[in-house]
Amino acid sequence: MSFFSSSYDVIIVGAGHAGCEAALACARMGLSTALLTMNPDTIAKMSCNPAIGGLAKGHLVREIDALGGEMGRATDETSIQSRVLNRTQGPAVWGLRAQCDKEQYNQRMKNTILRQPGLSVLQAMVDRLMVVNGVVKGVVTEFGDEIKAKAVVVTTGTFLNGLMHIGETKIEGGRNGDLSSKGLPTHLKELGFEVGRLKTGTNPRVRRESIDFSKTEEQWGDEDPIPFSHFTTTFPLQPQIACHITYTNGQTHQAIKDNMSRSPLYSGVIKGIGPRYCPSIEDKVVKFPDKERHQIFLEPEGLSSSEYYLNGLSTSLPLDAQYSFLHTIPGLEQAEIVRPGYAVEYDFVPPTQVTHSLETYRVKNLFLAGQINGTSGYEEAAAQGLMAGINAALAVKGLAPFTLSRTEAYIGVLVDDLVTKGTDEPYRLFTSKAEYRLLLRPDNADIRLMEKGFELGLIPALAREAVIEKKVQIEKGLKGFRTRILPPEAAPNEALQLTVQDRSLYLDNIMRRPWITYEGLRPFLPQDLHFDPEVAFQIEVELKYEGYLVKQRQEIQRQSRNETLPVPHNFPYLKVIGFSREAKEKLNKIRPETFGQATRIQGVTQADLAVLLLAISRYSKKQAESAAAFVQENQD
Amino acid sequence: MYHLEDTIAAIATPAGVGGLGIVRISGDEAFPIAGRLFMTAKPLDRRRQILFGKFKNPKTGEILDEGLLLVMPKPHSYTTEDVIEFHVHGSPALLEQLMEILVDLGARLAEPGEFTYRAFLHGRLDLAQAEAVETMVSAQGDAARRQALKQLTGGLSAHLEPIEEVLKSLYLKIEARLEFSDDGIPSLDQEKFGKEVGGVKEELRKLLESYQQGKVIREGLAVALVGPPNVGKSSLLNALLGTSRAIVTPIAGTTRDVVEGEIRLKGVRIRLFDTAGIREAKNVVEVEGIRRSRQVIEEADVIFWLVDAAHPQESLKELKEALLPKDRTHYLFNKMDLAKTKEPWKGSNLEKSRCIALSCETGEGLTQVTEKIEKLIQTPLGSEDVVLTSARHQQEIQKAFQNLERLQGLISAKQPFEIWAEELREAALSIGRIRGRNLPATAFEDIFMKFCIGK
Ligand SMILES: Cc1cc2nc3c(=O)[nH]c(=O)nc-3n(C[C@H](O)[C@H](O)[C@H](O)COP(=O)(O)OP(=O)(O)OC[C@H]3O[C@@H](n4cnc5c(N)ncnc54)[C@H](O)[C@@H]3O)c2cc1C
Fold first, then answer.
1. ipTM for the complex?
2. Rounded distance, CA A404 to CA A374, Å?
3. What pTM was computed for the model?
């Protein structure tokens, strides 16, 4: 092909949320990069709900941002309602969430991609990979064009053998209006990859003009919204609008039950496994028959869009059935469906086949990211895309992979869960999956990760310097609070519930009281303990959580010895006597990179781990002995 | 390091004791090895069985002994491997010789705890059960044996299971509200939640209390006999033992070291320590004796301070200087046969209920002394109660208890949910660890190194 250079450093297949982050990271790390997608109009398209963030997902976006990813900035620029979930709880579990204007989001991302130097975009469906001696060398498109690359990142989302269901109707396609990718999954199987099948679904969209909002509750965003990006200075940029809440009722549930036999989910047509945390309305009605009503959020798809997304009503019932239950819901009696809800089944590559750098074990320099790894959600996809892009770039440069551990980032938890435990339903991240939830907060993502982002070449030097200075300030503040006592003018104080006795207490003790905030104390603090709001917030949070943070940091230190003990990739698990059968199979399949990873494999018991530990040390001893014997022999 | 593919052998009975000696082997070679040692008409078949016959040295053909062969084919054995036991006469020389022959035939001497290690590795025991084996091995009283057996059959694990379940369900209640705060889950009924936390905490408290009793069952009760020289400590020891063990002479300071004797009351081991006096020492030997006495007093569950009933003033004066822990001390007025009054404690400020009139000469008051000890044992033997016996279990439960105590504080101080969750998760982990889950694997080796071999 002449108009298109036929050789790149890295090729990204797919321009969803994973593909975009991967492509931008590679190009920004200085590599010639090509982004191949079936349809450039749908770059970074939100397939499902018009929102980014939430619990754990919001944490991911903060981390992506601190590593130089794009999602946080794009969200802030296109946000039309911003809300922090759990704001009455502590900051470790705050869920930053933004409704976005869907069209604006995908335009914004598309333009960023198109303007990125070093990044080419091409409309092409990839059917095969070029693999020589176990190393990927490029891709082959459906028209037979060969494009060479030193590394390839595959981020094909729900498109591999995508099959949509609306009632009894089946349509081939990865997403409403898109094609299905059929060559690639077949080819992946030929290469020896195990391929599984999952299912997800989405809700009907209805016309704004057909909704009677007077019968619904209004829900506004926060008055002092918090942006996702560390680089956002003015926020919000656009008018903020309301969402609305309504509820299903007995009639709705009856209408659903009456049509149940026509649901592909219940008639057994759908074979793929769907997400338990994101059930269809059919599932909710069947599994919770006692629940009298289910909450439905009416979410605008954009400022200028007339489409409304009915969050909570994912369904694959036939269109007439969707109408009949919709019309029982207050506010939706006259609703007109613009796009029906549907379910989609698709192939995925069980993620135990990739390493922590998201490179496949089977084919060198081939990386997988996003929904193809069995995850679900824009943020999970973007996080993996970023990591895979970074690692593809590092691989081309001949540098060591970049990985994050469970103790450093939610991204680390996500990747480790995937490669260690695999998944048999669409995987979604939760904050409770992080062992060190109080340490991995959205508010300290910059402190945890920005310097790493800088080293990778994805964060500007100025931002890094600012973080280093921030850390210095926080340390100074913490020291001040731990060594100074409450100034006498501060107590007694009724509003702050401080008494005369409190005058002899150190400031950190005062701060630990649930109702005390830095801002409340500020008027009484000595001048050198006045900090800018971000530093002050860190001081406050660190002190509030202090006992727990100290314990978690100790725990991390204690576990790290065996955590990082490497296990040889070709370790002969099948030869070890003493493993339970399940453990033997799992270990042999997953081939943990470290002992720590082995401890997290489901079905591997403590007893198996004891055996493994013994076996590893025996194995390495034997290796060492035979190496020594070899040296010995050659000296003689 | 343990090599799991080896066949291991060990003597399972204590050295030099009793008429019976047991040698046990476990592993793939158990059958072939036993086949060469045990004289049978036909080859050993793989059946659970007990055979009677002769053991011979396969090299020399010499008959070693007559006895039983216990055959336990895999997986229905303690280690889940092929296990064979040789029950022979308990002569140390014979047992040694047997071991030599077994090693000759390809078995390896077992490391400490290795049988249990294998049992555990093969999923035969959970961690709590494995530790119960250790307790059983080292327990010397019948009560301990019974308690240990109960744990071995999963008593503690079974008892903890519902507790762990409740903790998990409480944890999940919080997590659900954090992770799905927008999903219309009804807000938490904090009062009910607090009550449930209190309920689990109470269960843990009971278990912790049982540890004190458990300790008595496991280690026996330590009784220290203390008092001025020549007041009759050794005589009391001998009277309790019913033998003449300590050297009893009327010269003050004869019992220079701590003399130990052992009796059993209600199935519990009672260790009696006859200490040297604790008055000021005159020479090096006495200094050492007194140091040891102090240590015994420190560790004893019960202290009997002996008073010369004929001259109570002197003994009581020394008592003041001895600074004994009052809550563990009882006062025995010995030599009542020489006393001037029937209640020689009158005039002192000692609690009457803690004083016993005694005469080792006539035997007066000896039953009161043993009754006093029996009262302190108070074992829940025969009852279904689970008793904590391991220090590690106690520690974990203590930790979980503290988690819940802090949690109650967090609830009433209206602290945010994510730190409630932290306390609950830790508590559940502690309980889980007792049951052998989520424990870093390295801890296991230490635990198994502590075991005696052969159960
Ligand atoms: C119907 C539906 C419902 C969903 N519901 C939810 C939900 O409820 N909750 C939730 O969190 N997430 C949901 N999602 C998932 C969410 O949209 C995805 O997880 C996320 O978009 C995945 O991002 P990705 O980058 O992996 O793939 P996608 O965003 O799917 O992007 C895939 C990209 O790859 C391209 N592509 C595919 N095959 C090829 C090929 N062979 N050659 C070239 N290009 C190719 C496509 O053109 C596209 O650009 C849903 C998705 C769908 C389709």
1. 0.86
2. 19
3. 0.76
